[in-house]
Write a structure and sequence with these properties.
Blueprint: E1 12-15, E2 55-57, E3 63-66, E4 78-79, E5 99-102, E6 119-120, E7 130-133, E8 143-144, E9 148-157, H1 168-171, H2 189-192, E10 196-207, E11 214-216, E12 220-240, E13 244-251, E14 269-274, E15 277-282, E16 287-298, E17 301-310, E18 320-322, H3 326-341, H4 361-373, H5 377-387, H6 415-432, H7 435-452, E19 483-484, H8 485-502, H9 505-522, E20 531-535, E21 538-541, E22 546-547, H10 548-556, H11 566-575, E23 591-592, H12 596-609, H13 613-631, H14 651-661, E24 663-667, E25 672-675, E26 684-691, E27 694-703, E28 706-712, E29 718-721, E30 727-731
Parallel strand pairs: 1-7, 5-14, 22-23, 25-29, 28-30
Antiparallel strand pairs: 2-3, 4-6, 8-17, 9-10, 9-12, 11-17, 12-15, 12-16, 12-17, 13-14, 13-16, 18-26, 19-20, 20-21, 24-25, 26-27, 27-28
C-alpha cells in the first residue's frame, strides 16, 4: 500500500496516513509493516535511532490498536532475519544494499494471521520525536512492466584481469562514514558479479509477456527493457525447483551494450539465495532503471511477473502542454517524468544513487512544482526541513547544509548552495505569500550572511571561501580560487534577494557594490573571466580561464545585460550553447563549454530574460532531445556518465510554459497574468497551467498573417498581452 515516511529533520518525524480500502463487508484485514533501520549517516536517511510508531484508527478516528500496546490492542513484532545485515553500502550517499536468504514461506507473515512475523521480538521504547504532518500528497504506485526481452546469454566465472572496481562506499568505512568494513561483510555482490564474464550473447528484442516464465539455468541471464527509466521497487515472481542464487542487476542505460551495475558509483544489484518453492520478490528500497538483468548464478529458476512498482509524485500533472513539435513535446514529457520521480516528498537530485534533497536543484524544481501542481506544498516542506533544527551539526556556524535532511559527518558543504537557498526563498515568497515561513527563516538567512562576512575582501568580494565551491560541472569547477567571479555574481543576487525580503538597505547596497567590483575586475574586454588569484602584489586575473558558464552567471545575476555588453551578448547567442559542440575551434575558442548542471539551465534563463524564445525553441532539441529519446528522462550531465533522471532538469517544463506557450509571468497573489504567446518560432501551441484551484488555459496559432489567441482564464485575473505584430484575441468568459 505504501512506503515512507516523508523526510523530516533531526529530532522530528512525519506522519503518513493511509486509508485501508475495502468493500464494507465483514472480513479480516491484516496490516503488515516492514521496517528497515540502517543507523548510518547518509544523504537519504538520518543516523538516528530507528523506530516504528503506528496506530490503526476507525473512520471516526477511534484507535483500534497501536504500537507499544499489549494484547489485542498491540502490534505483534518480530525480527526478519531473511535480509542479510552485514552488507556493503549501496552508495556513498545511501545506506545498505539488499541481500536476502529466503525460504518459500518467508513472506507468509504479510498475508496470514497464523504466520509469525519472523523471530519474535519485544518492543523497546525510544526517546520521542516531534511529529509533523506529511505536508504533501501521498505518492503514487503505478506498476510498470517491461516492454521487451532484449538479450539473453551465459556467463562464466573468472577473476577480473584488471582488478576489482571499488568505490569509497566500500573502501571508506570508518568513524566519519559508518558501515561495515569489507573484511566484516557477509557477502560482497559488487565483487562477485565482477567475476561473471559473458561467454554467450543473443541480442534481439522480443515482446515481454508477463505470464510467460523466463527459464534461467545456472550461469545464464536475461535482460529486460522497460522502455524508459522508471523509479521504484523491483518485483518478480520466482519459482525454484531447487536452491538457487539470483542476482538482479540494473541501470538506466546500456554501457557498450552491457548493464554496468557500477556505472553510477552505486551497487545496482540485489542478491537472493532462494530455497525451493514460489517466491514473490519485491525490493524494500526504491531504485532507478531502464534495463534489468536477471542472472541465475546457481541452480535454476522460472521468473515471471517482472515489474517496477513506481514510487512517484502523487500530485504531478494537472496541466497540459502541446506544441505540435514532436521533439519539444517529448522533452516536456521527459521533464514531467523526471519531476515525478524526484518529488515524492522533498525535491531530490536523483532517484538512484542519492535520493537527496539538494539546494540549487530545489530552486529549479520548485518552479516546476508550481507549473505542474499549482501549489507550493512541496516547496514548503523542503524549506520547513531547513527551518526547524536549532543548528546543523558538523557545519560552520551560520552555514546551511548543501542537502538536507542528511548527515554531514565530514563537515563538507557548498557555500554557493546557501546562496541559492536565499534566491529560492525570495521566489517562494512571491509564489506563496507565506509570511510565517519567511519569519521562521529570517534568523537562518541573517546567520548565513554573517557567515560570509569574514570572507569579504577590501573590494567587498568573497575571497578564499571554505568548502566545495561549485559553479558548474565543467572546467569552471576548477577555477574557483581565490576570487570566484561566478560565485560573487551569485552572492550579489542573494544579497539583493535577502535585502528585498527583509527590508535591509545594507544588503541591497552590498549587492550593488559587489556587482560594480565584479564588472570592474572580471571583464577582460571580451569575456568575463572566472577567477583571480592572490599574489604578493595583489589580485591577478587569470585571463586564460574563461568558461561559458561564467558568461551565463553574468547575464542571469544582474552583472550584464544585452544592451550594456552587446558584443558579448551577440557571442553568447550566436557562438555559445549546444550548437558549438564538436566545433569549438570555430565558435569562441578558448571558452570552456558548459555542462548540464547548472550552466545549460542558466543559458535558458539568460535567453528567456532577453525575450529570445526563438533561440530556446531551436536549441532545446539539441540540448535535451537525445536524453528524452534514450531514457524518457533528463540527465545530470550532457553525457550518460551520472544520473539519467535528475530533478533540476525538470525545470524545462517551466521553461516550456513560460517561453514556448507564453505564460510569461503569473502572480497568484495579485491574480495577474502576463502573456507573451507566439514569440518562439512555433506555428501553434496550446496548454493549461494550474494555479491554486484554478486552471489557466491558452492556445494560439498563426493564420491569415496574424496570431490567433484563445484564453480561458478566470475573470478576476488581470491579463496583459506582450505581442509584436497583428493578433486576434478571444478571451472566454466564465459564468459568474
Amino acid at each position: 500500500m505504501g512506503h515512507g515516511p516523508a523526510a523530516a529533520p533531526h529530532g522530528y518525524c512525519r506522519v503518513d496516513e493511509w486509508a485501508l480500502s475495502g468493500d464494507g463487508a465483514e472480513e479480516e484485514t491484516i496490516v503488515a509493516i516492514e521496517v528497515a533501520g540502517y543507523n548510518v549517516n547518509s544523504f537519504y536517511t538520518l543516523a538516528e535511532p530507528s523506530f516504528l510508531q503506528a496506530e490503526l484508527l476507525t473512520s471516526d478516528g477511534r484507535p483500534l490498536c497501536w504500537t507499544g500496546a499489549d494484547g489485542e490492542r498491540g502490534f505483534e513484532a518480530g525480527e526478519l532475519r531473511e535480509r542479510l545485515r552485514r552488507t556493503q553500502r549501496y552508495s556513498f550517499q545511501r545506506a545498505f544494499t539488499e541481500a536476502y536468504r529466503l525460504q518459500a514461506d518467508a513472506a507468509d507473515w504479510r498475508s496470514s494471521a497464523a504466520a509469525a512475523p519472523g523471530a519474535r521480538a519485544d518492543w523497546a521504547r525510544v526517546s520521542g520525536r516531534l511529529a509533523l504532518p506529511r505536508g504533501v500528497p501521498l505518492p503514487a504506485f503505478p506498476t510498470l512492466q517491461p516492454l521487451s526481452v532484449c538479450e539473453s546469454g551465459a556467463v562464466a566465472h573468472r577473476l577480473p584481469p584488471d582488478g576489482y572496481r571499488k568505490d569509497r562506499s566500500l573502501t571508506g568505512v570508518g568513524p566519519l562514514y559508518l558501515g561495515y568494513p569489507e573484511a566484516e561483510l557477509g557477502t560482497v555482490p559488487s565483487l562477485l558479479l565482477q567475476e561473471a564474464f559473458t561467454t554467450e550473447r543473443r541480442v534481439g528484442e522480443r515482446p515481454y509477456v508477463p505470464d510467460a516464465a523466463l527459464r534461467l539455468e545456472a550461469r545464464s541471464y536475461r535482460i529486460v527493457d522497460f522502455g524508459r527509466v522508471a523509479a521504484g521497487f523491483i518485483q518478480a515472481e520466482v519459482v525454484c525447483a531447487e536452491p538457487a542464487r539470483l542476482y538482479l542487476m540494473f541501470d538506466e542505460v546500456l554501457s557498450g551494450g552491457e548493464v554496468d551495475f557500477l556505472r553510477l558509483d552505486a551497487v545496482n544489484a540485489v542478491a537472493y539465495e532462494l530455497g525451493p518453492g514460489v517466491h514473490s520478490l519485491e525490493t524494500i528500497e526504491p531504485y532507478s532503471l531502464r534495463y534489468l538483468k536477471l542472472l541465475v548464478w546457481e541452480g535454476s529458476a522460472d521468473i515471471r511477473g517482472i515489474g517496477v512498482r513506481e514510487y512517484a509524485c502523487g500530485d504531478a500533472v494537472r496541466g497540459s502542454f502541446a506544441s505540435g513539435d514532436p521533439a519539444l513535446d517529448a522533452i516536456v514529457a521527459a521533464g514531467i517524468e523526471t519531476y515525478r520521480q524526484n518529488a515524492v516528498d522533498v525535491f531530490m537530485d536523483c532517484p538512484s544513487r542519492e535520493r537527496a534533497g539538494w539546494l540549487c536543484d530545489s530552486f529549479f524544481m520548485a518552479r516546476t512544482a508550481a507549473a505542474l501542481s499549482g501549489t507550493t506544498l512541496y516547496e514548503r516542506l523542503f524549506l520547513e526541513n531547513y527551518a526547524l533544527p536549532e543548528r546543523f551539526a558538523h557545519l560552520p556556524e551560520g552555514m546551511v547544509p548543501m542537502c538536507y535532511p542528511a548527515d554531514h559527518f565530514d563537515g563538507n558543504f557548498i557555500p554557493n548552495w546557501g546562496l541559492w537557498f536565499v534566491l529560492q526563498l525570495g521566489e517562494y515568497a512571491a509564489r506563496s505569500g507565506d509570511a510565517d515561513m519567511l519569519a521562521r527563516l529570517r534568523p537562518r538567512v541573517a546567520s548565513l550572511m554573517r557567515y560570509f562576512e569574514p570572507f569579504r575582501n577590501a573590494d567587498g568580494l568573497l575571497e578564499r571561501l571554505d568548502g566545495w565551491i561549485f559553479v558548474d560541472w565543467s572546467p569552471a569547477r576548477e577555477w574557483v580560487q581565490d576570487v570566484s567571479y561566478p560565485t560573487n555574481m551569485l552572492y550579489a543576487a542573494a544579497l539583493e534577494a535577502a535585502g528585498r525580503l527583509y527590508g535591509s538597505g545594507d544588503w541591497l547596497r552590498q549587492a550593488e557594490a559587489v556587482r560594480t567590483a565584479v564588472r570592474s575586475q572580471s571583464f577582460t574586454g571580451e569575456y568575463f573571466a572566472d577567477h583571480a588569484v592572490r599574489t604578493a602584489e595583489g589580485l591577478r586575473i587569470e585571463t586564460g580561464h574563461v568558461s561559458e558558464a561564467c558568461q551565463y552567471y553574468a547575464f542571469c545575476f544582474g552583472i550584464a545585460e544585452p544592451d550594456t555588453y552587446p558584443e558579448l551578448w551577440r557571442t553568447l547567442v550566436e557562438r555559445l550553447g549546444p550548437r558549438r559542440r564538436g566545433i569549438e575551434s570555430g565558435r569562441a575558442p578558448g571558452v570552456a563549454p558548459t555542462n548540464q548542471l547548472i550552466g545549460n539551465m542558466l543559458r535558458l534563463e539568460a535567453l528567456s530574460a532577453a525575450g529570445r524564445a526563438d533561440v530556446i525553441a531551436a536549441e532545446l532539441p539539441e540540448l535535451l532531445g537525445g536524453m528524452a529519446s534514450a531514457t524518457g528522462t533528463l540527465w545530470e550531465q550532457d553525457e550518460p556518465i551520472a544520473s539519467c533522471s535528475h530533478g533540476f532538469v525538470s525545470h524545462v517544463v517551466h521553461v516550456a510554459y513560460r517561453d514556448l506557450l507564453g505564460f510569461r509571468h503569473v502572480d497568484p497573489l495579485r491574480r495577474t497574468v502576463v502573456l507573451r504567446p507566439g514569440q518562439s518560432g512555433l506555428l501553434s501551441c496550446a496548454g493549461a497551467l494550474p494555479v491554486g484551484g484554478d486552471l489557466l488555459a491558452m492556445s494560439w496559432r498563426y493564420a491569415d498573417g496574424k496570431l490567433h489567441i484563445e484564453t480561458d482564464i478566470p475573470d478576476d485575473y488581470e491579463v496583459a498581452l506582450e505581442i509584436e505584430g497583428p493578433y486576434a484575441w478571444q478571451r472566454k468568459e466564465r459564468p459568474g
